[in-house]
Write a structure and sequence with these properties.
By secondary structure, the chain is of the alpha/beta class. The protein folds into two domains: 122 residues, no CATH class; 114 residues, Response regulator (Rossmann fold). It has nine helices and eleven strands. The chain has a four-stranded parallel sheet with strand order 4-3-5-6, sandwiched between helices. α1 crosses α8, α3 runs parallel beside α4 and α8 crosses α9. It is globular. The protein starts with 20 loop residues before the first helix and ends in an 11-residue tail after the last strand.
Length: 296
Amino acid sequence: MGTPGHVHHLHPLQDVDQRECPKMLCKVMHPPGSMGLWNHGGHADDVQRLPGVVSVGTPGSRYLPSVLDAVATELPEARVMVAVGRGAFGRSVAHGGREAAERLGMTIVGITTHREVPEAPNADVLLMAGTFAEDLELVRRLRARPPAIGAVAAGLGMFGAELGRIAEGILGPSQWEEGLRFPIDVGPRQAEVIRGLRARVFATLRAGAAGHVEYPTAQAYAAGLLAMHCVEEAASLEDDALRATARALRCTTFFGAFGLDADGRQTEHEMLVVQWQEGVKAVVWPPRAAEASTVI
């Protein structure tokens, strides 16, 4: 990738070994001598605001609002308890959840750690945003479940694989799902990307993993795709030119809409909500993308 012209020859995982993909993406997203970072995994709002960071995914402050939107009709004026992990992501999630509850006329009855949540929470909605293991452990130890439960971990296929029938009915925010179809103006079509990712990724999955492409894999590829597009548009690998191009860019890839706010956060990409229904994830929010209705 010595010159922008070489970018045209990088096809979606067609000729790249999956084990080499992280190395390839690292070279694209963080060229030698560059201080810029194309961010596909750091969703804390404070991280997305950092100078030189170009973020692909929706920030943490917008994870829980989408879940509350999905249950608002069935649970108006709900009492909401939020369990969050430590660090910047947890702070972002808690802040977004509080603002959304106020907007929807709901009441936050507690923002706490996972360990402090009682086995029978006195709430209509229990939301959790910790590590994958923390979310799983909390779901397992609930003796009485609130009418609605949302967990960041529930957006991943391994959530259902680990919990089995216990996962039924639980909602989860998701950055992307395989079944989405919408017009795109940058990069290959959804079906083409999914075929390429499936062919390369499935061979590396451990036993019990879900048989579809998860959003962390998709957003990593989307970050590389957008980085290469900006290199093409800027005709440069210089940080200032790439940052200016990324800040001005408004487009839609297979991963969804892309557009940065003035403070650097990703604002155009829309969060989805999935719910585990009959052993599989189904998109239930927003309505225009829904595969099923929310079941409370």
